[in-house]
């Protein structure tokens, strides 16, 4: 009798949540040591660390979610610029600006 072949396992991918948990534990150990030495210093270290993390994350946010439209195409002085902002189907966080030509009377 032959043994059944075992199904191949899919390669596992590391979870970002697992990395965040490891970083949180590594960050909490020094804070716990400081709290054990002096509760006042522990509060100051915690407030400073949280302030630093919030400041660092705030700097990584994109600057403009709705930027100004680009200038009208060249050679269109008699036309009033008309445009429509459409969601990008490939990236929901981006928008596409579509120009429409409309001549003024």
Helical segment count: 2
Give the proportion of residues in helices: 40-55%
Unreliable stretches covering 5 or more consecutive residues: none
Radius of gyration: 28 Å
Q: Termini distance?
A: 90 Å
Order of helices and strands: HHEE
Counted up, domains total 2
Overall 3D shape: elongated
List keywords for this structure.
105 residues; alpha+beta
Describe the overall structure.
There is one protein chain. It contains 2 helices and 2 strands, in the order ααββ. It has helices at 16-37, 39-59, and strands at residues 79-87, 95-103. Strands 1-2 form a two-stranded antiparallel ribbon. A hairpin with a 7-residue loop joins strand 1 (79-87) and strand 2 (95-103). By secondary structure, the protein is of the alpha+beta class. The chain has 2 domains: 17-59, no CATH class; 66-105, no CATH class. The radius of gyration is 28 Å and the shape is elongated. The longest helix is centred in the first third of the chain and has 22 residues, at 16-37. The relative contact order is 0.08. Helix 1 (16-37) runs antiparallel to helix 2. The model has no long low-confidence stretch (mean pLDDT 76).
List the topology elements.
Layout: H1 16-37, H2 39-59, E1 79-87, E2 95-103
Short structural summary:
By secondary structure, this protein is α+β, with helices and mostly antiparallel strands.
């Amino acid at each position: 009798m032959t043994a059944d072949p075992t199904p191949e396992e899919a390669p596992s991918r590391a979870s970002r949540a697992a990395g965040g948990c490891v970083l949180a534990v590594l960050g909490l150990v020094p804070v716990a040591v400081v709290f054990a030495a002096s509760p006042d210093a522990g509060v100051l270290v915690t407030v400073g660390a949280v302030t630093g993390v919030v400041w660092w994350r705030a700097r990584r946010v994109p600057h403009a979610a709705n930027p100004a439209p680009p200038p009208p195409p060249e050679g269109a002085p008699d036309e009033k610029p008309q445009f429509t902002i459409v969601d990008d189907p490939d990236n929901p966080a981006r928008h596409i600006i579509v120009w429409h030509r409309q001549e003024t009377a």
